[in-house]
Amino acid sequence: MTSLAIMGLHQQGKSTDITGQIRLDDEDLVSATPERVRRLRGNKMAMIFQDPLTSLHPYYTVGAQISEAYRVHNKVSKQAALKRAVDMLGRVGIPQPAVRVDDYPHQFSGGMRQRAMIAMALSCDPELLIADEPTTALDVTVQAQILDLIVDLQGEFGSAVIIITHDLGVVAEVADEILVMYAGREAEGGGGEEVFGHPRHPYTWGLLSSMPRLDVARVDRLRPIPGTPPSLINVPPGCPFHPRCAYVAEVGGDRCRTEVPRLLESGPGHKEACHLTLAKKQEIWERLSPRTAAEAEPEVEQGATEVEAS
Amino acid sequence: MIAFVIRRLLTTIFLLIVVSMITFGIFFLIPRLAGQNSAELAAQYVGRNPTMSAILQMEAKLGLNDPLVVQYWRFLKGIVVGAHYDSGPSQTFCAPPCFGYSFRTQQPVWPQMMAALPVTISLAAGAALIWLTTGVSIGVLSALKRGTVVDRFSMAIALAGVSLPIFFTGLLSLELFSYKWPLFPNDQYVAITANPLLWARNLVLPWITLAFLYAALYARLTRASMLETMSEDYIRTARAKGLPERTVIARHGLRPALTPILTIFGMDLGLLLGGAILTETTFSLPGLGQFTVLAIQNQDFPEIMGVVMLAAFFIVIANLVVDILYAVVDPRVRISLWPCWRSATCTCSSGPTTAWSRPWTGSRSTWSEAARSASSVSPAPARA
Prior knowledge:
The complex is a heterodimer of chains A (310) and B (384).
Chain A: E1 3-7, E2 23-24, E3 27-28, H1 34-40, E4 45-48, H2 52-55, H3 62-73, H4 78-91, H5 97-100, H6 110-122, E5 128-132, H7 140-157, E6 160-165, H8 168-174, E7 177-182, E8 185-191, H9 192-197, H10 202-209, H11 248-251, H12 255-258, E9 264-267, E10 270-272, H13 278-288, H14 293-309
Parallel strand pairs in A: 1-6, 1-7, 4-5, 5-6
Antiparallel strand pairs in A: 2-3, 7-8, 8-10, 9-10
Helix pairs in contact in A: 3-4, 3-6, 4-6, 6-7
Chain B: H1 2-33, H2 38-46, H3 52-62, H4 68-81, E1 83-87, E2 90-94, H5 109-144, H6 149-163, H7 166-180, H8 196-230, H9 233-240, H10 245-273, H11 277-282, H12 288-297, H13 301-329, H14 331-334, H15 366-376
Antiparallel strand pairs in B: 1-2
Helix pairs in contact in B: 1-4, 1-13, 2-3, 5-6, 5-8, 5-10, 6-8, 7-8, 8-10, 9-10, 10-13, 10-15, 12-13
C-alpha cells in the first residue's frame, strides 16, 4: 500500500516499452501470454489516463462503461454490475449516483469524468492502480480534489498506486516513493523527503530549479535544463543525460560519455545513477538549492539596485 | 425529438421550394432574359414544323403570356393539387403531382416517372445491400490487418473499383457474363411482382457493377474511419479494462467508426434514387436515369423539371433520415434534442441547441468529421 511517483519532463521514457521484468505479485508480465495479461488488466491492475474527456466512450452511459469493466472479471448479472457502478460512483464523490449512472460522459464535467474513470478503475478492487498524468487535463482546483480522492481511495481500497507525472506538485502531494526517469532509465529514486530535500542527480536538480516556488523569494529567473529531450530510439551513449549535464567536467575523463552509470544506493533508501562522487553531489546541491526568503532577501535588494544603476 | 423532426421537415419543405424556384427559373426565367418571347417558348411544346395558330393555342393553354409569378404559382399548384388545362372544347385534368405533359409522349410526366421508379429502386436497393456488406467488412478487415497482404490486396482492388468507370466495368461484365458465358442474360427488366427470380437474375450484373464502385469507396472510407477510431483514447480505456479484443472492436470501435459511413450512405442512396444514369444506360434499364437521359436528349422541359424535383426530393429526404438516425446513434446529438426536463443533469439549457454546433462538448465533432470524410471521397453522381 504505497504510492510511487515516476516523474520526468515531457515524454522522457515515462510511458514507453520496457525490456526486462515487470512483476506483479511475483508474476512476470513481460513473459506472460497476452491472454493472461488481459485477464489481469482491469482486474488486478487498473489504469486511469491523462485525458478523461476522450478516455470515456462517448456512445455509452457512464454506468454501462463501469459495469462493463466489472462484468469482464466478475461473473455477475447486468443489474448487479450496475448496482456496483452506482456504488462506485457514490464512493468517488459523484452526487446522486443512482441518477448519474445513466448519464453519458458528455453530461459530466472534466473532474466528474476523471472521477468516473477512477470509479471504473477501482471497480474490480485492483491491487495496483496506475495513474498516467491523472490531473494534467483538469483545472487546478479540480486537480487537488482528484489527488485527494486518489489518496483517500488508496487508503480505502488498499491498492498500490503508481502515479506517472511531470508535475512536481502532484509528486510532493501523493508520493511515498519517487522514481525520477530520464530517457527510459531510472535517474534517481527514494523517499519523497529524500529526493526533494537532498536530490543527488543533475536531472533532478534541473527539474527542481526549473520549478517556481512560493516559499522562496524570486532571486533570479528560473533555470531551465538546456537542450532538448533525446530521441528514445537513439539514446545518447554513456549517461543518457550527459549532453545536457553541466557537471560532465567535474567527473573528469570520458566516463559520462562512455559508461552508463549504474543505479547505486548512496544513502538509506536513496538511489541514483550518476558518476559524480557523493561529496561533489552534496556540494553542488548546496550551491544550487534555493534559499529561503529570509536568507535571500539582501541579495534581492542588491540585484534591484544593480538594475537601477544600469 | 418530435420538435426536432418537425423543424427538420419544415426545412425540408423550404429546401424543396428553393429547388423548385431554381428549376423553374432555369426553364422559364432564363430564356426570357435571353430574349425569347412566349411564342417561341410555346413553339417548343407544339412539335416540329408548327403552325402559327397551334403555337398561339398552346401559348394560351399553358398560360405562357401570364406574369412569371403567376406561372410559378400555377406550377406549384399543379404539383400540390393538380392542374386543369383548357384548350377550347376539350378540358384535361392533370392529377396532383402534376409536372405537365411530356413533349415526347404527350402523357403526364408523373405517372411515367412512377413507372420508372421501381426499376431504379430495385437497382439502388440491391446494390446498396451488396456494397454496404462487402465494402464495410472489407474496410474493417483492412483496418484491423493494417499493412498486411490482406490490407494491401483489398486496397489495391478498392483503388481499381474507385478508378474504373461504370461503363467500363459494366460493359466488361456484360461481355463476360452475358455474351461469352451467358450466366446472366441482359434481358428486359422484369418487375419483382411479376417474377422475383427473373427480376433478381436480370439485376445481378447491374447490382454488382454499381456495388463494385461504391463498395470500393466504402471500403476505403471505413478503413480510414476505423483506423482513426481504433487510435482513440476510449479504445485504450476499453483495452485497459481487460476486455477481449473482439469486444473492443465490435462494441467500442465499430459503432463510432460507422457513423460517418451512415451520413455518406444516406447521401449516396438519395442520389441513386434520382437515377443511376450510367448504370441504367449501360444495362438498358428503364429507370429514372434512363428517363432523365431521354428527357435531356429531347429537351423535354416538363420531364426534366419533374425528374429534377423528384431527385431533389430524394436527396433532401435522405438527409432528413440520416439526421434522425444520427440522433439515434450518437447520444451527444440525441441529448440536445430532448427536452431539458428529462433529466436533472441536463447541460443544454443555454447556448447553441445542437451538439454538432458545440464541438467542445465531445472529443470531436462527429459532424465535421463526417463532412471531412465526405469531402475527401466525394462520389460524384455522374459516376453511377
